[in-house]
Amino acid sequence: RPWLDTRRGPADFPLDRLGNFTFSSVTLTRDDPTQAQAVITTTLGFTDDRTDSEYVSGERHTLTVNLGRTAQGWQVTDWTFTPRSGELYED
Fold first, then answer.
1. How far apart are CA 89 and CA 66, in angstroms?
2. Distances (CA, A) of 61 to 40, 45, 70
3. 90, exposed or middle or buried, with CB in 10 Å at 0-12, 13-18, 19+?
């Protein structure tokens, strides 16, 4: 849970109901000796009272993770989680 404290922007989702969390692509948009940024397309789904499995349908989001190099190695400095528009498949 320490990574939750590095969150930037709205990402208030109920972790106790987290179902699937998968990623379909990772792009390093910045990669230098002191900083890096990963942009990750993710699918995030939640369980509910009617769901008895963690494998639930989810919506696509963009997870952006900023990293900084410290004496201990690479550390997450902050991250954002935003919904994506334009779903690949219509229901």
1. 29
2. 8, 10, 28
3. exposed
Phi and psi at 65, nearest 5°, equal -115, 120
pLDDT tens per residue, the chain (91 residues)?
566 666 666 556 676 777 778 888 999 999 999 999 999 998 888 887 777 676 777 888 898 999 999 899 999 898 888 888 765 555 5
Per DSSP, the residues of 26-88 read EEEEEE-SSEEEEEEEEEEEE--TT--SS----EEEEEEEEEEEETTEEEEEEEEEEEPSS-S
How far apart CA 13 and CA 2 sit, in angstroms, is: 16
- pTM, whole model, 2 decimals? 0.71
**What token pair was written down for 12?**
């208030």
